[in-house]
Amino acid sequence: MDVPLRLLRWAVHVTACGLLAMAVITMLREDRAEVAAGGALLALVYAAAPAFRRQTVAVPAFRRGEGTGQVRLAHVWLGLVTAGWAVLAVAAAPFVWLAFPLLFAYLRVLPLWAAMFGVTVLTSSAILAAAWHAGELTVPLLVGPGVAALVVTLLALACEAMSTPPERPQES
């Protein structure tokens, strides 16, 4: 089962890189070099994901007397990618569609409850950004991202189930 999961991950990365490349090229053709540079920076941060995997750093606790806490760097990476996406999605319509590969990242990095919240917020933000750029909210702009988020979520959950080893029955 490892091969299909690897293929899916590669497909998500290729999709993200392709969408980023198309958006950057579009911005260069429109003489919006600053937005294209932002897209290139986002590509670098996205590509740095393996450096953030499963590492933690100590951070000061928010309450007195608690010492330090641990933060997974993958969460920091996801926050940086999301912030970069949000800025670019507001700056130019072609970047809005990068939300969909990011949904896989949410489902991969975060616990399920947080991922579902993130998927909802990211999808809603993509709908609003697309409608803002289009000048109106249309049925396709509302339904399309919602259906895509549902499909991505179900696919990611299915992949997670495939990658989890089955439990062996307890012998009496």
TrEMBL record:
Transmembrane segments: 7-29, 35-52, 73-100, 112-132, 139-158
Keyword annotations from UniProtKB, A to Z: Membrane, Transmembrane, Transmembrane helix
Protein name: Uncharacterized protein
Organism per entry: Nonomuraea fuscirosea
